[in-house]
Write a structure and sequence with these properties.
- The chain is α+β, with helices and mostly antiparallel strands.
- It folds into two domains: about 90 residues; about 35 residues, no CATH class.
- The chain is about 35% helix and about 20% strand.
- A hairpin with a 5-residue loop joins strand 1 and strand 2.
- The longest helix is centred in the last third of the chain and has 29 residues.
- The radius of gyration is 20 Å and the shape is globular.
- InterPro entries: DUF317_SPDY.
């Protein structure tokens, strides 16, 4: 039911800045920086898209038909057949521009630069986890970091 006095909108609605409008439902802008580098593109029968780095140490999944709200998943591997060493997930409400910015930086980094950056992020997360555990111990309150 339309509230009294409200007008229906006929035509396009533009939101500015664009990222406030939510995700676009297409993967092209987020995939483009990596496709431009020659990353291998694969599709499954459900319409999901997967990009593999030439050395298979980084993999991106664009999963509109995935099992949960994780629309974009990016994982790194030291062994292409082993478990991921690091990963990030952007859900279906994340603006595509954020994912495009992430993949643009990813495309600009060499593998060594990526390993250094991800190592720094991992060390920072472990330091934060340790600091919170110490804080919980000294305050007498049990806490949990997720």
């Amino acid at each position: 039911m339309v509230p009294h006095g409200a007008r229906t909108i006929d035509g396009d609605v533009y939101v500015s800045p664009r990222y406030l409008g939510g995700s676009t439902a297409i993967g092209g802008p987020g995939l483009a920086p990596l496709l431009d580098l020659g990353w291998e593109l694969e599709h499954d029968d459900l319409g999901n898209a997967y990009l593999n780095a030439p050395d298979h140490k980084v993999r991106l999944g664009y999963l509109p038909e995935g099992e949960d709200d994780g629309l974009w998943r990016i994982n790194t591997y030291t062994d292409p057949f082993g478990p991921p060493t690091w990963g990030v997930c952007f859900n279906n409400s994340c603006p595509t521009e954020f994912v495009t910015a992430f993949t643009t930086v990813l495309a600009a980094m060499s593998l060594r630069q990526l390993e250094v950056a991800l190592g720094a992020i991992r060390r920072a997360a472990l330091t934060l986890r340790h600091a919170l555990a110490v804080s919980a111990h000294w305050s007498g309150r049990e806490g949990r970091v997720r």
